[in-house]
Amino acid sequence: MNIETLKQLSYDSIRKLYRNYLETLEISKNTIQTFSGDTFYLWKNVGQKEFWDVVTSNNFEIEARDALQKALMDNSSGNIAALVNGYLANLRKFRNYAYNDAAELPEQEEDNAKSLKNFLLDIECLDPLSEWTSKFNLFDILKITRTEIRHSNMLSWLLSPNENHGLGDSIIRGFIQYVVTSFSEEADVFDTLLMDCHDFIIQREWNNVDVLAVSKDEKFVLCIENKIDTTEHDNQLNRYRKIVEDTYSSYKKMYIFLSPEGTDASDPEYWCSMSYQDVLNIIENARKKVKLLPDVALLIDNYTETIRRDIVGDDNLTRICAEIYAKHQKALDLIFENKPDRTSDLGDLIKTWAVSKTEKGEIEVVLEKCTKTYIRFKTDYISRLMPDTEEPDSGWNTKNHYFYEIRNIDGREFFIQLSLSAKNLTDEQREVCKKINEYFPSRLQKENWQWRTPFVTKHSKTDEELAGEHIWEQLDKKLEEIKAFEDKLKTIFEECC
């Protein structure tokens, strides 16, 4: 494949082709991920034509450096000189590939084209999926199938006994019954199940609590924390429980931690874990007992379909998809690999920031222990506080027994946590971990712990455009949180040692 043919390819196609080439080299997957992103910085930030003008220039070194410096000055506030050197090295490697290693069309590409052709010739294999794809579903149209806030709004409507859904108090009664029968041994079963639920008032985002149901007549509170694609943070459940207890001290109280799989709550003594399958069962049981108005029935049926398909999982759908995948695995893998991947894009932006901070000496990113969802780095202070062991025997198979981890949640949210590994700790390291936990207790206090996260930064949401500058600014703020945390640690260890 000559360079003129390469120039006609789309961004996604050329990046995939280059990734395939990098995979033939003896470099790690994380390095490949970084190279395949950083190489095309000019393309993403200036344009396709400008990118190829630089790559094909007879004066490549000078023009590439000038173009990168200008683009970085316009789009970055980091160490420009260091970033230029990094991007230039990647661009130089790609130029060599374009003029030499891509001269012949690899057999793999021919094989890929054949797989895609066979899939298109058998496109009827997708017809069984029409049962799920061709139906009208309001939640699909609004693109809110996995939007946590919208699910909480829908549940609030269903939980309210006096709303116009026609289900009365059956939903809130179903939630209360679930807690009584599956969790609360102390609840007075008869009093709880026989209480009048028609005066419950449903509140959204009351003191940041997702859903709060309050009955003044029965002096009863039901508190629901809803998580779909996010996790608990900042000791949420414990804080929310204390707020409810302070406000409704004389009321009976129930707490539900709702998640797709019924994940264990961090405060299991008080919070009952509930899955969306349990919610689905409650709604469908209530739905069978009454005749609903057509528009209400459509809305509720759309909602239960969304839960079953996108949150819980439909067994029949899973089986059909598995059969199609087994038949056209290679073609579908190619399609999936080349689809827009928000998680990978955010991961690339975070890695770029981490590499820049490493070059400035502020942190030490460890790329071989990074993925698109976990970007791991070390700091000088914690490395001094917990020196490396002689053998790579931590939970990460490293000599260090800690990492700061930047958690990338589906490309839509990120935060940084300090993770400690208990595996093969020395006595000295264990004492350090004990002291840290004394002042910054992890949410789970297990005697024989394996992992601890004594420090977690604030969470940051990403915008739809995944603006690099905004994300890097947020990461800079989180790095300041880390520095403040480490300053506190310094004071603690100086006073006690």
Write a structural description:
With 497 residues, the chain is of the alpha+beta class. The protein has 3 domains: 3-103; 141-315, no CATH class; 342-496. It is built from 22 helices and 11 strands. Strands 6, 7, 8, 9, 10 and 11 form a 6-stranded antiparallel beta sheet that branches. A 5-stranded mixed beta sheet has the order 1-2-3-4-5, with helices on both faces. The termini are far apart.
Task: Give a short summary of the structure.
The chain has 22 helices and 11 strands. With 497 residues, the protein is an alpha+beta fold.
Distance between the termini: 65 Å
* Unreliable runs: none
- Average pLDDT level: 83
Given the helix and strand composition, which structural class is it? Answer: alpha+beta
SSE layout and pairings?
Elements: H1 3-7, H2 11-23, H3 29-38, H4 41-45, H5 48-55, H6 60-75, H7 80-101, H8 107-121, H9 130-133, H10 138-141, H11 148-159, H12 170-182, H13 189-193, E1 201-206, E2 209-215, E3 220-226, H14 236-247, E4 252-259, E5 271-275, H15 276-288, H16 294-312, H17 315-327, H18 329-337, H19 342-359, E6 364-365, E7 374-378, H20 380-385, E8 402-409, E9 413-421, H21 427-439, E10 451-456, E11 460-461, H22 468-496
